Amino acid sequence: MAKSLTSSESTVLTYEQCKAVTAPFYCEENVCNILKLALQAGAKIGDLFAVFVSSPDRLVPFREQKSTFKEKGGMCYWDYHVIPLILTSTRRNSEKTALVYDVDSVLPFPSSLQHYVTHSIPAPFHGMDYQQIHIKEFRHCFRVVNYGEVMTRFSSDRRHMLLPASHWREAGVPEYTSVPPPWPCFKPDASSHPHSLPLFLKMDAAMEDDLFKVNGELSQEEAPGELFCCVEDLFKFFDRLIVDPH
Prior knowledge:
The protein has 246 residues and is an alpha+beta fold. It has a domain at 15-148 and 227-243: C8orf32 fold. The chain has six helices and ten strands. The chain has helices spanning 15-19, 27-40, 113-120, 147-153, 197-200, 231-243, and strands at residues 48-54, 60-63, 75-78, 81-89, 96-100, 111-112, 141-146, 213-214, 217-218, 226-228. The relative contact order is 0.17. Residues 1-9 and 126-134 have low confidence and may be disordered. Keywords: Hydrolase. Its EC number is 3.5.1.122. It comes from Chondrus crispus. Monomer.
């Protein structure tokens, strides 16, 4: 079970608060809810981020997840995972640290970004640019998107969670691989595309299959945030933000 940080550190949200606004297997929507909750709790917009983790082939190994398969050496494989990251001040000093609030993890809650990545991503992939990894399906890439872009550009009609129509128990009544959350589907406004998730999961600009489609046409819309395919570059990005928030 996830644990809280020591009392000497100040957290924006507790595990219980975050768990109350999440639903299993809908990590991208869970992150939106957690970031909104953090904003309501007093966090600054500039300190809130969603980190989309995937690979060009949509297969990434993770450790220390609640869904970990013990028979596979404590490792599970996601097509993608999304984590909320909040720059948080500690009581011991005025400096901020990058904390991950992943309700799907069994690591301490929250965990520092360094601790989370070190223990969640199998060691062979640390310090390696994805082009150096011959097993291409295991290339961890990280798309970091700030709160503003998430809330204005992310949308999901949950089509990626639908079972094939042939598996529906009643004709015309959609069924999902996991029970949908009780809240409405995410959509910034009436004019937004109903499902922009593929754009956020675009981990290789050269892959045509990952291009965002609008009304069946390939879109030239730029993917949100910044893409990193090396954990050290991810660390450096947040280190710079902590030193110089502007």
